[in-house]
Amino acid sequence: MMQKIKKIKKPLAVIGILFLLLFPVIITSSYYLHVMILAGIYVVLSLSLNLITGYTGQLCLGHAAFFGIGAYAGALLMVNVHMNFFFALICSFIISGIFGLLLGIPALRLRGDYLAIVTLGFGEIVHLVFVNWTELTNGPMGIRSIPGPSLFGIELDGNQEFYYLILIITALVLFLLNRLVNSGFGMAMQTIKADEIAAESIGIYPVKYKLIAFILSSGLAGLAGCFYASYISYISPTTFVYNTSVTILAMVVLGGLGSLTGSVIGGVVLTLLPEVLRSISDYRMIFFGALMIIMMIFKPEGFWGVSKRVKNIYKIKAGGAQNERDYESR
Amino acid sequence: MFVQQLINGITVGGIYALIALGYTMVYGILKIVNFAHGDVFMIGGFMGLILAQTTNLPIWIAYPLAMLITALIGVLIERICYRPIRLHGADALAILISALGVSIFLENFAQLVWGTETHAYVQKIQRTAYNIAGITLSNIQIGVIVLCIILMIVLYLVVNKTKMGMAMRATSQSITSAQLMGINTEKVIALTFGVGSALACVAGILVGTYYDAVYPLIGYSYGLKAFAAAILGGIGSVPGAMLGGFLLGIVETLGAGYISTGYRDAFAFGILILVLLFRPSGLLGKKHVDKV
Amino acid sequence: MSEIMRADNVSMIFGGLTAVDNISLTMEDNEILSLIGPNGAGKTTFFNMLTGVYQPTFGTITFYGENITKLKPYERVAKGISRTFQNIRLFSSMTTLENLLVAHPKCNSENIGRVLLGGKKLKKARQEIVEECEEILEIVGLKDKEDELATNLSYGKQRLLEIGRALATNPKLVLLDEPGAGMNSMEKEELSTLIRYITQKMDKKVLLIEHDMRFVMGISDRILVLDHGELIANGKPEEIQQNQMVIEAYLGKGMTDEE
User: Fold this and answer.
1) Nearest CA distance, B98 vs chain A (angstrom)
2) How do residues A221-237 score in pLDDT, each as one tens digit?
3) Does the pLDDT at position A320 exceed 50?
4) Closest CA to A80 of A9, A175, A162, A147
5) Nearest C-alpha of chain B: how many angstroms from C207?
6) CB A187 within 8 A of CB C150
7) Pairing assessment for the beta strands B135-138 and B129-132 based on DSSP bridges
8) Are residues B292 and C85, on separate chains, in Cβ contact within 8 Å?
């Protein structure tokens, strides 16, 4: 079984990449292109949440707040200062990351379940600020006419351009996060999820790793927010609410806590599903709630969780060649 | 003015305390934050409303029945959504996510069934207001305070004076040791969820009667505040939850009255963050020491 | 002989309970030191103060002349103290080799920038880490299980893996909390050999807690006996065997004294 999967894995990946590259050519419906762009944004969001929740084991219920901070930061910079989209993207990464740092320093010292409550409250506060600080955010009316990206004077604000942009961003994020989690740093993060006392006993200072993971996670959510603002060209506080945080968490849980591939698939599937099956759209949140329960009972590692591993994370072997073994998780 | 605010604060504080007890009891035994508890409170409120409205039962039958049904729902939630994960030996994160799932499910299910709007509550008791030396006090308010205090005394006696209470306390010390002593810990856990949910149902009915309103998202804000109360008192401590509830209610009402009504909800949350940062064990909680 | 570690008047009080009462001791170079005592004597509590899990209520702990009383566990690892646990705490979803890799100071402190950039240099550095860890696996006898998930190892092998993980932090002093618990006599024999190898060939100091008298008597150069949080005896194995207080602590006082 495992062997079979391994054999078809490569061709499958090639076909997948080709499909993604040619998607706008094959499927000309602008609606599906729109859905795919949204899926790309959600993939970045769920990848980033996976870093702190899936790999480091710290439940964060305020991810929509960082998404929102990035969106507002990006929008305000592009609208008020006429900053170029690409600079705004970097700035929103940094600004969201700084908020992550400020929240993380006190909150990450707490036990895991308290962190969930604190981040939940943070999300509420940020939402309230979006609504009430009208001088800056224009309140419930939101910010309109956010410009699209342009590069050397060429406007890139067509849907196809946005599609390829988010494809590149997602690929880059995936590539870098893959390096990060498969490193000594990544292993250290996972020891914190597994057992903090054991982690400390081998010289790992949990707060440091949690903080870095949290900053990267919130920064990436902010980056996704900036892209979102530019793409939709209009943002309002209603997008950045508790339900959005829950949706992102559902994507991570479905794909697998601690699996990057899982986050990609979870993000795509849970964005497409309510769009394709319009009838379930009203029951979306019920479905996400039930999904979390069912996954935790029957498949806590998610559908693409660490079910098979061949070598150590470094993928290095020093001594004599050994037969590779596959491990199936029970 | 001050005394008036104080009494109003005690009224709402008693309700917070009733909900906080459910958080604290479950935490004491399983060391998990039962995210769904606020929504169980909401379901309890609706159960009381539906039973009293549609069946024409007198409230002294309808309300205890609502408590029973809510207790059963609480036990079922533990049974279906937490126990399998617990017995798998999975980490706390998995139970936490499952609890969050239950909370989201209940909130959205309730919106589907009962709509998002606010429902007026059945008023089977004639509301009369008394005026004593410039302080207004309604019979419902007195009822709320008296009932909260009676329930807390009963719970305190059950936990500290009965055999079942002793089993509960033993289980909260160590599940494994309690099992070795012949305690049916699964029964204790189910009972804890049942009692906590029944108390939440009472709180739901009281809120409904006192404010004449219940709505599907009511559990979110009340749940968060009651959790703040449980933390303030020291999570895991039954007297702590009571103290925390009353204190939070009083601070919130005084704050809204003297500082700003707009920031009413911010007080609870501010207290929560301050306590977590400076005294995570709360006022009456024990300092947590990890066993190695 | 030089001094490795010393505890001065160390006490630990939980609420009203004195778990460890005013213990002073010195650990000298070139000795395997053992801590024994009946259940609840305060051995593990004392151990946890040495490793930094608990901060002593009173007293100071010095390591190579440096006061480490207030240091956290991870800071003590950097100073050269590592440990194993009485109830095994491996990273069960990681492989045997990964459990060692992550403990290696060069691995868990990998620079994020370098990680993201990748490159040959990083790969070479990792190659070295892997080789060092595999060497340790060879020593603890788990080389052939390096790609096995830790959770799939037998109980005795998991204990060995924990020792390996402790060694991977490159410590000066290794604290072993009941390393032989749950092992059969043959495994214990191998454990003795391993501990001697660690002290003699790898030049690490070892302090251990153990229940098995025969095992302790065979391996220790010096034994400390704790009872009710107090140090009741301190000496060579032969002396301890003869010590009246130790015998009483373990077997209870004579029949005549019993009520």
Assistant:
1) 4
2) 999 999 999 999 999 99
3) no
4) A147
5) 18
6) no
7) antiparallel
8) yes
Rounded to whole angstroms, the Cα distance separating A28 from A30 reads 6
Q: How far, in Å, are B245, B280, C15, C48 from residue B233 at the CA level?
A: 8, 10, 19, 30
Number of domains, chain C? 1
Contacts of A194 in chain C (CB under 8 A): 91-94
pLDDT grade, residue C33 (50/70/90)? very high
Residue A47 has pLDDT above 70, yes or no: yes
- Domain extent, residue C199, equals 3-257
**What pLDDT was estimated at residue B232?**
92
C66 forms beta bridges with C63
- pTM (global) more than 0.95: no
Q: Cβ contact (<8 Å) for B292 and C14?
A: no
Q: How many CB pairs under 8 A join A and C?
A: 125
CATH number, residue C228: 3.40.50.300
In tens, the pLDDT along B235-284 reads 888 889 999 999 999 998 988 888 777 667 777 877 887 888 788 888 88
Q: How far apart are CA C166 and CA C88, in angstroms?
A: 12
- Report the residue of C108, C138, C169 to disrupt the A interface, i.e. the one with the largest count of A CBs within 10 Å: C108
What tokens does A115 get?
A: 């962190």
Its ipTM equals: 0.89
- Within 10 angstroms of residue C238's Cβ, the number of other Cβ atoms is 10
Spatial neighbors of A135 by CB under 8 A, at least 6 apart, are: none
A190 contacts in chain C (CB < 8 Å) = 91, 93-94, 102
Tokens of A155: 């406007």
Pairwise CB contact (< 8 Å): B290 & C44: no
Amino acid residing at A147: P
Tell me the shortest Cα–Cα distance from B89 to chain C, in angstroms. Answer: 13
A46-50, A53-57, B158-162, C250-254: range with lowest mean pLDDT: C250-254
Structural domains of chain B, ranges and CATH numbers in brackets = 2-278 (1.10.3470)
